[in-house]
Amino acid sequence: MYAKAEQAFWGYIETRNKYELTGDYSQFPPEMTTYLEGLILETTQVAFEKNKAGGLHASGPAVNTTKPAWTKRYGDSVATMAVCQDATGLVALDANGNVAREGVKYSYYAYFRVADDGLVKIFHIDAMGDSLCD
């Protein structure tokens, strides 16, 4: 199951990078429903619309490191991943190229479950500040 969770996670990151790095917010990527569900999908759509309205794009890709969190569970999760996302040194730029915010390092637990369509998807995230980063 963890291998399927990794596929979902990296698919989500790749899809998100496509619009965050280019600023192409022409439509919310329908493939996000392959990787996310529930509240996580909804909050990703809200962030997409907010970034679209601000004309935001990232100056580069954040570095993500992951590892299994075998003992962490949430509800009916089948896999849990500890994620560290390091965006230090990066910025979010607005439509005019002005810095809208500085990048930071933060971490979270991503919880995966088997969705109704049979795919393993992220359905819950616990933010952990930067405590999971080495």
Keywords:
134 residues; alpha+beta; 4-stranded antiparallel beta sheet; 3-stranded antiparallel beta sheet; globular
Strand order of the largest sheet: 2-3-6-7
The geometry reads as globular
Number of strands: 7
Largest sheet: 4 strands, antiparallel
Uncertain runs are none
Radius of gyration: 15 Å
**Distance, first to last CA:** 25 Å
Number of helices: 3
Helix/strand/pairing class, anyone? alpha+beta
Helix content: 25-40%
Oligomeric state, counting identical vs distinct chains: single chain
Chain-averaged pLDDT: 96
Question: What are the secondary-structure elements, in order, as H or E?
Answer: HHHEEEEEEE
Instruction: Report strand %.
Output: 25-35%
Structural account:
This protein is α+β, with helices and mostly antiparallel strands. The protein is built from 3 helices and 7 strands; from the N terminus they run αααβββββββ. The protein has helices at 2-22, 32-35, 38-54; strands at residues 57-58, 63-68, 79-86, 91-93, 99-102, 105-114, 120-127. The strands form 2 sheets. Strands 2-3-6-7 form a 4-stranded antiparallel sheet. The mean pLDDT is 96.
Task: Give the structure's gist in a few sentences.
By secondary structure, the chain is of the alpha+beta class. It has helices at 2-22, 32-35, 38-54, and strands at 57-58, 63-68, 79-86, 91-93, 99-102, 105-114, 120-127.
